[in-house]
Amino acid sequence: MKKIFFILVLALLQSVHSQSTFPYDMVLTPVTVTGLPGLHSYAFGQSNGKWLIIGGRKDGIHARQPFNAFPGSNNNTDIYVVDVVANQFWSTSVNVLPTGLQEQLQSTNMNFYQDDDTLYIIGGYAFATSANDHITHDKLTSIDVPGLINAIINNTAIASYFKQIVSPNFAITGGQLGKIGSDFYLIGGHEFTGRYNPMNGPSFTQTYSSAIRKFQIDNSGTQLSISNYTAITDATHLHRRDYNLVPQVFPNGELGYTISSGVFQISADLPFLYPVDVKASGYFPQTQFNQYLSNYHSGSVGLYNATLNEMHSLFFGGMSQYYYQNGTLIQDDTVPFVKTISRVSRLADGTLEEYQLPVEMPALKGSGAEFIPNENLLHYSNEVIQLANITANEFVIGHLYGGILSTSASAFTDNQTDLTSADTSIYEVKLVYNPTLSVSGIDGHNPFSFSVYPNPTKGDTIKLTFDAPYSAPLEYLVMSVDGKIISDGVITDFKSGSNTMSFNLESPNEQIIMLTLIFDNKFFVTKKIIKNK
Question: CA-CA-CA-CA torsion for 207, 211, 215, 219, nearest 10 degrees?
């Protein structure tokens, strides 16, 4: 049975209305490219106004039965070049390429990033004929975007525009790839082998990365290579896949990324709600704030107003644990398809705020779609649009293409995946200046906190003090400094209001541990504890 209830009783997520510092209406206009098929969970690049579309799937959301999940017949085995202005597209098959390339480039949920004219693709999951199994590909591929686009348009050979290398470090699907300075960041995701099974049966093996893998790529010669590879593991905060990685300009002007939501928590089959900032100096969980209106990968885009020092991230549809119905915020732990378009803004003082936009997606769509930004707008090297440098009252920020279309919010939960399909839609996304715009915001603050004493401590026993804002489950994770979970469990003997209790860290061999308490499967707080010998 679906777990749905109204949130009004909590008085924690009250909607508020305010004058917006993002004074823009959004207009979605359908665009037709005749004959272009529907796709979702693909990779893309672009050059000179044309899009390069690779991989993804031609069906809807995956079936719940292992024998029917991710059939190879619905792998996308074509590479498309799309000219959205001219209503034209071209294609060629990946099957003309060597086996390693053709199998990876028809996979789903690849990690990709375009660096100047080169599109880098890592990993991806699909049925591979050579393995006679569903696998996560252990490959890094570089693609000459303008060269490949021209070859496909002119119907000439394409193999020379690819390079590929193999490493177990690349066996990731459902993560994201970014770049800060000269370093690439492969963030989150998991390695999945075999067939999906909703009951966690023996048809697959799965290992979450729970890491940020950092390295440099040399694409200058005839063969790819990487150097300076490092990995930072955090099984508490980085245990994420199928999320949005939104490029950011932080209040100090630093470029980086924000990990937005994603799945699944270690102790619950629910999304993470708080974001994690990723910078050259490290990663920073923002557990003081929860983002409620977008939880799975969908189209997203970042815009920065340098005049106000404000960063705005937009999210288009997809799947979410929370959504509005007739003005009331609803929690649905089955995480259904939604129409919501939302915004998370970071103010000059670093405060995060979330808003529901007045416009919605035209249907239950957006999951697994991509936002393809308008490259003619001024933007930073990480694709954040320079909002303060746009003087027009109306301007196109980009396009949404593809994704999963569903005729039922609960199609996956109800095992009616035949009600979903790969969306053929393309939408032009325009912002229109409206200084009188009033928006609906959500109180995303974290009402839970705790303290430990003594700290530093001797031995494993400490005192916990915390205030429980209402009656709800309370769980704990004890993690070593190298990011591994030492122990986890449930705290049961507490009451609403103030609490003090003894707690055993269960970590005799660790000098530094990270203790995380999770209240009501949604509010995370982490403390660093030092043990003196």
Answer: 50
What is the Cα–Cα distance from 406 to 296, expressed in whole angstroms?
Answer: 15
CA distance 461 to 454: 9
The residues pairing with 156 across neighbouring beta strands, listed in sequence order, are none
Total domains in the chain come to 2
Q: What is the mean pLDDT of residues 416-441?
A: 95
Same domain, 392 and 507: no
pLDDT above 70 (res 169)? yes
> Nearest to residue 210, comparing CAs of 195, 232, 225?
232
Do 107 and 180 belong to one domain?
Answer: yes
Q: DSSP letters of 442-488?
A: E--B---EEEEESSSBSSSEEEEEEEESSS--EEEEEEETTS-EEEE
| Residue 472 exposed, middle or buried by CB count within 10 Å (0-12, 13-18, 19+) | middle
Domain that includes residue 247, residue range: 4-442
Note the pTM of the prediction, 2 decimals.
0.95
d(CA 78, CA 56): 10
Would you call 494 helix, strand, or coil by DSSP? coil
The pLDDT value recorded for residue 20 is 57
d(CA 278, CA 260): 11
